[in-house]
């Protein structure tokens, strides 16, 4: 990094979730952004750790990125676009934004809900939809007037069908059924039993319910389901087929609230369930495109690339509008 580079050329993008916060220092060249360096810290969802702790986590990620870029302390950053989980609520978002501005992290600093950037991967303006399936599952849609609607994201106690959590939960349920029937374990059942280090109904129940964070424990089983599906294990394939159905319903729920039937809506998809090589990618894309009303599907592998778009003048200043 050239420390003498104009500070007006340098910006920050942050993607903060419940488990980690990623930051990039980027250099602006007209309308393009080049990554200079990256940094990471712990999770920053203010609903989970409080606004003050979220501010600290974000500042630590930014400091790590600045250090990796070799930026002197006096080097100013022109603009920071900070996408954070748990900030759809405007009051919470403004509170976090106020605390971050007090840190003087950049000349301009704005906090965005972490569900917004995926829309830019589908279309920078106009109608668009995004589908996010990681530990949880959420769909977001935007109409031609810039108003957004969020569907799902209820959390594992109330929903999250189509998520890594729900995939892992169904894998455990399938394993328990196989054990109770006594007909031997499928490949999926064997993988679940091995990963949980439990081979009986009682042991599996104890393992699942014992830890405080059983949500993440169940979500951690999702990759095993994906691998078993690749090996043509029928129970695993069935679980992933159900997952696609749940995600289509979730996507339709978001889009139908804002747009009339027949609109050709571009869709972007992101999350751990759709990493490169996932057997869910092609089936989901086919299912979306054969459903009337959807124009295209794009899979996003790097969430921070979506946040880059929020640095553009129009996107940075655009009002954040959510329909109830």
From TrEMBL:
Q: Which Pfam family, any one, appears in the UniProt record?
A: BcrAD_BadFG
Q: Which InterPro entries match?
A: ATPase_BadF, ATPase_NBD, Euk-type_GlcNAc_Kinase
Q: Where is the ATPase BadF/BadG/BcrA/BcrD type domain?
A: 14-276
The name of this protein is ATPase BadF/BadG/BcrA/BcrD type domain-containing protein
Q: Which organism is it from?
A: Aeoliella straminimaris
Q: What is the lineage of its organism?
A: Bacteria, Pseudomonadati, Planctomycetota, Planctomycetia, Pirellulales
């Amino acid at each position: 990094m050239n420390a003498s580079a104009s500070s007006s050329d340098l910006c920050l993008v942050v993607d903060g979730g419940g488990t980690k916060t990623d930051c990039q220092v980027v250099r602006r060249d007209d309308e393009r952004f080049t990554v200079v360096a990256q940094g990471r810290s712990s999770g920053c969802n203010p609903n989970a750790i409080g606004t003050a702790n979220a501010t600290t986590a974000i500042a630590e990620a930014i400091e790590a990125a600045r250090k990796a870029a070799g930026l002197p302390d006096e080097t100013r950053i022109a603009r920071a676009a900070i996408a954070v989980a748990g900030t759809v609520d405007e009051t919470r978002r403004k509170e976090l934004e106020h605390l971050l501005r007090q840190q003087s992290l950049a000349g301009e600093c704005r906090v965005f809900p972490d569900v917004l950037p995926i829309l830019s991967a589908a279309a920078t303006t106009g109608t668009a939809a995004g589908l996010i399936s990681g530990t949880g599952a959420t769909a977001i849609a935007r109409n031609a007037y810039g108003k957004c609607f969020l569907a799902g994201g209820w959390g594992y106690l109330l929903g999250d069908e189509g998520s890594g959590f729900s995939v892992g939960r169904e894998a455990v349920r399938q394993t328990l059924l196989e054990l109770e029937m006594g007909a031997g374990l499928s490949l999926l059942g064997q993988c679940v039993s091995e990963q949980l280090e439990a081979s009986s109904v009682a042991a599996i129940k104890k393992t699942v319910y014992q830890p405080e964070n059983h949500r993440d424990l169940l979500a951690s089983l999702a990759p095993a389901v994906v691998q078993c599906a690749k090996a043509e294990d029928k129970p695993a394939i069935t679980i992933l087929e159900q997952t696609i159905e749940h995600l289509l319903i979730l996507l339709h729920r978001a889009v139908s609230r804002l747009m009339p039937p027949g609109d050709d809506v571009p869709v972007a998809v992101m999350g751990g369930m759709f990493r490169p090589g996932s057997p869910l990618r092609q089936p989901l894309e086919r299912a979306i495109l054969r459903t009337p009303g959807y124009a295209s599907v794009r899979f996003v592998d790097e969430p921070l690339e979506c946040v880059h778009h929020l640095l553009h003048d129009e996107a940075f200043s655009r009002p954040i509008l959510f329909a109830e």
